[in-house]
Amino acid sequence: MAVLVGKRAPAFKASAVIGTQVEAEFSLDRYLGKRYVLFFFYPADFSGLCPTELLAFQELLPEFERRGVAVVGCSTDSHQTHAAWLRTPLDEGGIGGVTYPLVADASKTISANYDVLAGHYDYSETGEMVFVGTPQAYRGLFLIDRDGIVRHQLVNDRPLGRRISDSLRMVDALQHFEEHGETCPANWEADK
């Protein structure tokens, strides 16, 4: 697994669904110099675990926004699938009400560039290159500063959900360090 911490976040342009609108060439560059970005990957739309995380990010979205953080999700599904999932009621496994961008990585290049794509290429018995495994994203999360540098990354296997409040703590720690120049020890939490 590639460590991206301390490096520029891989750039991309891709379709994204924002509310009910599709943006054809969404890029994280729109936030450069303005906002932090919490860019997270999840395996698949219309799955059992993923909506719990997407809805938890939405629930804490006001806290992220208060800290100047844009939340952006990404999976290997198409923008059409994202849009359909957003239109599906919560009681039917949908994520209606999610307002942050959902990037479509149907080509799987964004997931590959962030090194969160499950599976790998190998050779078949006949010498042909084949993909082994399910080409979905792991549960990757990247905290990107206003200069576009990855400051924190976390990657979980697909069955292991994240605690979204931990992401807020990492944002607080980064902002505390930037403001005061003080490191944040284990279990550090911002003054409330």
Automatic annotation (TrEMBL):
GO cellular component: cytosol
Domain of life: Bacteria
GO MF, one annotated term: thioredoxin peroxidase activity
Annotated active site: 50
Thioredoxin domain location: 3-176
Sorted UniProt keywords: Oxidoreductase
Classification via Pfam families: 1-cysPrx_C, AhpC-TSA
Protein's GO biological process: cell redox homeostasis; cellular response to stress; hydrogen peroxide catabolic process; response to oxidative stress
Family to which this protein belongs: Belongs to the peroxiredoxin family. AhpC/Prx1 subfamily.
Role played: Thiol-specific peroxidase that catalyzes the reduction of hydrogen peroxide and organic hydroperoxides to water and alcohols, respectively. Plays a role in cell protection against oxidative stress by detoxifying peroxides.
Protein name: Thioredoxin peroxidase
UniProt organism field: Hymenobacter ginkgonis
